[in-house]
Amino acid sequence: QVQLVESGGGLVQAGGSLRLSCAASGRTFSNYAMGWFRQAPGKERDFVAAISRSGGLTYYADSVKGRFTISRDNVKSTVYLQMNTLKPEDTAVYYCAARRVYGVGYVLTAEEYDYWGQGTQVTVSS
Prior knowledge:
The protein is mainly beta. It contains no helices and eleven strands.
């Protein structure tokens, strides 16, 4: 098992920036592909970004590409989501997720992830 705890959410104005962190514990962090998802009220949980075990491969949803950056520090066992040029439509609860993998790659669907954090609220005012 791996435990995930998100932090860094808050209230920001449109055009601002925020960095989310997800600290992992319980297993070897480098064995997990990681991802970020978000869920707005009344909507489904949507994919945001994913990163491979080493951090060499990343993938982004079209809605955030060019604005968000996912990264990881395998020494600190932490994955990050740097969010720039935030828009009101980015408002949601953001979740990090982990999937044990045995090779190079990333995981794109929520159903494939094994472990989830509790979520952190991001609110962007217009």
